[in-house]
Amino acid sequence: MKERTLSIIKPDAVGKGLIGEMIKRFEQAGFKIVAMKMVHMSKKEAEGFYAVHKERPFFESVTRFMSSGPSVVMVLEADNVIARNRELMGATNYKEAAEGTIRREFATDIEKNVVHGSDAPETAAFEIGYFFNALELVGV
Ligand code: ATP
Ligand code: MG
User: Fold this and answer.
1) Contacts 24+ apart (CB under 8 A), 39-42
2) Ligand 1 proximity of 58 Cβ (cutoff 6 Å)
3) In this predicted model, what pLDDT tens digit does every residue of 39-76 receive, in sequence order?
4) Interval 1-27: pLDDT, tens
5) Which residue of 62, 106, 113, 130 sits 20 to 30 Å from the alpha carbon of 53, by its own alpha carbon?
6) Measured in angstroms, how far is the CA atom of residue 101 from the centroid of ligand 2?
């Protein structure tokens, strides 16, 4: 079933010049990019995005990191793309990520882990709506 997910190339990856590398991997995986833009989130905007984590000990730090520089936000579309993108990204902790995954190859710590991907249809819907309106998503 065709599905959409929100992908973010995080500030660490943008800073290291990895935008092209990340987009190449998404395209090679067969994911269609249906929306894309660059954003520099404010601290408040990062807090809103990661609101599900507000009770977590890493909340303050991760929202500071996500607002530390520009990110590239994208909507990717493909069959079963939520799970497939999570697989392509690898585990949150790059030390536990499988060989060949994005995080295994490019992450430098558990927080600065290069990419974000939605983890379920409900979170994807919230996250896509957080950054894009209907007119910004290209048609089928
Ligand atoms: P994301 O939501 O960014 O795709 P994820 O779903 O793999 O990552 P989450 O548990 O949702 O992981 O955590 C959100 C983000 O918070 C992580 O990607 C990472 O940047 C940061 N984070 C998670 N756990 C820790 C931790 N223990 N210490 C520091 N930062 C963390
Ligand atoms: Mg997550």
Assistant:
1) 39/70, 39/71, 39/72, 39/73, 39/131, 40/67, 40/69, 40/70, 40/71, 41/66, 41/67, 41/71, 42/67
2) yes
3) 999 999 999 999 999 999 999 999 999 999 999 999 99
4) 899 999 999 999 999 999 999 999 999
5) 106
6) 16
> Looking at residue 52, what DSSP letter applies?
G
Q: How far apart are the CA of 106 and the centre of ligand 2, in A? A: 18
pTM assigned to the model: 0.97
Q: Is the CB of 56 under 6 A from ligand 1?
A: no
Tell which one of 62, 93, 112, 115 to mutate to probe ligand 1, the residue whose CB is within 8 A of the most ligand atoms.
Answer: 62
Measured in angstroms, how far is the CA atom of residue 140 from the centroid of ligand 1? 31
**What ligand is nearest to the CA atom of residue 59?**
1
- SS3 for 26? helix
